[in-house]
C-alpha cells in the first residue's frame, strides 16, 4: 500500500472525545501516528475505518508528530498516561509507521512518562523490544494485545493482522522478559464468536502471561456492521448472520436504509450476561477483568483503579526542576481521584473537564 507523509496541523496531545456523562475511560493522551483508518490490518468492524473522514487506500503518516510532541511536553505541567494509537495500529508492518512510533516511544522514555501500546502485530511487538531494549526495565508502560477470535475465525475478524497463534507466542516471549501485559478480546462479534470461544481465548491469554482482560461486544455504525456481515456472508460461517443481526439489530438486506448515524449494540441484558460470565472466567485464572465502555464499573473486577487494570500508567507532574515525576493517580479523575478536595495533580478542573483542554495541562 502506498505510504504518504503529511504534517499534523493540530495538537498532538488530546483526550478521548467522550463527554462526562458517557465517560468510563480515564483521561489519556492519545497519540495519532497516522490519519484515521490508515492500517493495513483492515479489520472489517474497526470503528476508526468507519469514520466518514478515514482514509483506506493509502497509509498517511504524520511525520512531524515526534517533534510536535516534544514541544508540547515541554510546555505541560500535568501529563496523563499516553496511548498509542487509537486510530490505527502503531506497530503494523509498515516500516515508516514503526519508525515514527519508535521515535515517540523514545521521547516518552526520555521524559520518563507513562504509556501503553495496543496492537494486533505479534512481530511488531517483538520488533519494538528488540529496537528499544530499555523497555524491558522501563517502569511506566505496558503492552496490550488484541486476540478477538479463535484462530479459525480470524479470516473474518482480522484477516491481515498477525495470526492469532503468533500473538500468543509473542505474549509468552514478552512475559519472559517481565513486561506487563493486557489482553483484549474485543470486540466480540456475538453470534459469530460464541462465549465458550472467548473463554478459550481467556485461558490462552492467562497461559501466555497476561494479567488483565478487557472485553466488549462493540458498537457499530452501518458501514462497519455492513462490512463485517458481508465478509461473513462470503465465508463458511454465513449461517451465523441471522444471529448477529438479531443480537445487534442490524439487517443486511436493508443495508442502504439504515440511518448513517445509527449505532448497533447488543442489549443491556445481553451485555450483563456476557460480561458476568467472562469476568468469572478471568478471575478463575487469577486475572482481573474490565468492560470497555458498554457497562458501568460495577461489572469490572473489584478494586481496579481504572479499566486499564495495570498499575504502571500514572499521571506525571512537572516539578520546579523541570523533570516529570509520577503521582499516585491513574487519571481516572471522574471515578478514582485519590483526593477530590486536594487532588495530587493540583488541578481540580480535571474532575469535570471531559475531554480536557490542553491549556488545563499547561
Q: Give the percentage of residues in beta strands.
A: 5-15%
Describe the global form.
Answer: globular
Q: For the record, give the distance between the C-alpha atoms at the N and C termini, rounded to a whole number.
A: 39 Å
Question: Based on helices, strands and strand pairing, what is the structural class?
Answer: alpha/beta
Spatial strand sequence of the major β-sheet: 2-5-6-7-8-9-12
The number of helical elements comes to 10
* Helix and strand sequence: EEEHEEHEHEHHEHEEHHEHEEEH
Question: Care to give the gist of this entry?
Answer:
It is built from ten helices and 14 strands. With 362 residues, the protein is an alpha/beta fold. The chain has a domain at 1-114 and 313-362.
Question: If you had to describe this structure to a student in words, what would you say it looks like?
Answer:
The chain has a domain at 1-114 and 313-362. The strands form four sheets. The chain has a seven-stranded parallel β-sheet, with helices on one face. A three-stranded antiparallel β-sheet has the order 4-13-14, with no helix packed on it. It has a two-stranded parallel sheet with strand order 1-3. The mean pLDDT is 95. The longest helix has 17 residues, at 268-284. It has helices spanning 65-75, 95-110, 122-131, 154-157, 164-176, 195-208, 222-233, 241-248, 268-284, 358-361, and strands at 3-6, 29-31, 59-62, 78-79, 82-84, 115-119, 141-146, 181-184, 212-215, 219-220, 264-265, 288-291, 316-318, 324-326. Helix 6 runs parallel beside helix 9 (268-284). It is of the alpha/beta class. Helix 3 links the parallel strand 6 (115-119) and strand 7 (141-146).
Amino acid at each position: 500500500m502506498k505510504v504518504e507523509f503529511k504534517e499534523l496541523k493540530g495538537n498532538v496531545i488530546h483526550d478521548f472525545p467522550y463527554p462526562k456523562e458517557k465517560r468510563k475511560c480515564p483521561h489519556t493522551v492519545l497519540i495519532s501516528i497516522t490519519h484515521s483508518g490508515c492500517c493495513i490490518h483492515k479489520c472489517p468492524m474497526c470503528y476508526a475505518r468507519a469514520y466518514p473522514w478515514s482514509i483506506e487506500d493509502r497509509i498517511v503518516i504524520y511525520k512531524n508528530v515526534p517533534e510536535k510532541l516534544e514541544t508540547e511536553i515541554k510546555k505541560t505541567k500535568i501529563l496523563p498516561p499516553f496511548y498509542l494509537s487509537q486510530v490505527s495500529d502503531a506497530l503494523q508492518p509498515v516500516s515508516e509507521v514503526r519508525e515514527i512510533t519508535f521515535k515517540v516511544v523514545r521521547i516518552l522514555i526520555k521524559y520518563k512518562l507513562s504509556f501503553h501500546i495496543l496492537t494486533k502485530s505479534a512481530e511488531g511487538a517483538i520488533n519494538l523490544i528488540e529496537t528499544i531494549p530499555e523497555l524491558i526495565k522501563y517502569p511506566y508502560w505496558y503492552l496490550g494485545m488484541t486476540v478477538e477470535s479463535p484462530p479459525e475465525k480470524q479470516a473474518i475478524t482480522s484477516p491481515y493482522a498477525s495470526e492469532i497463534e503468533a500473538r500468543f507466542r509473542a505474549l509468552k516471549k514478552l512475559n519472559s522478559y517481565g513486561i506487563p501485559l493486557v489482553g483484549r478480546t474485543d470486540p466480540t462479534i456475538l453470534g459469530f464468536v460464541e462465549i465458550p470461544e472467548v473463554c478459550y481465548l481467556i485461558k490462552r491469554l492467562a497461559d501466555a502471561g497476561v494479567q488483565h482482560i478487557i472485553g466488549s461486544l462493540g458498537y457499530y455504525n452501518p458501514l462497519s456492521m455492513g462490512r463485517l456481515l458481508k465478509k461473513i456472508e462470503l465465508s463458511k460461517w454465513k449461517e451465523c448472520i441471522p444471529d448477529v443481526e438479531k443480537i445487534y439489530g442490524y439487517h443486511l438486506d436493508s443495508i442502504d436504509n439504515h440511518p448513517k448515524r445509527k449505532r448497533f449494540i447488543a442489549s443491556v441484558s445481553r451485555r450483563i450476561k456476557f460480561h458476568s460470565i467472562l469476568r468469572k472466567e478471568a478471575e478463575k485464572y487469577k486475572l482481573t477483568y474490565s468492560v470497555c465502555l458498554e457497562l458501568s464499573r460495577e461489572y469490572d473486577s473489584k478494586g481496579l483503579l481504572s479499566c486499564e487494570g495495570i498499575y504502571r500508567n500514572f499521571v506525571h507532574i512537572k516539578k520546579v526542576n523541570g523533570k516529570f515525576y509520577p503521582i499516585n493517580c491513574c487519571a481516572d479523575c471522574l471515578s478514582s481521584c485519590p483526593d477530590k478536595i486536594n487532588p495530587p495533580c493540583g488541578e481540580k478542573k480535571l474532575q469535570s473537564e471531559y475531554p480536557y483542554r490542553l491549556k488545563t495541562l499547561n
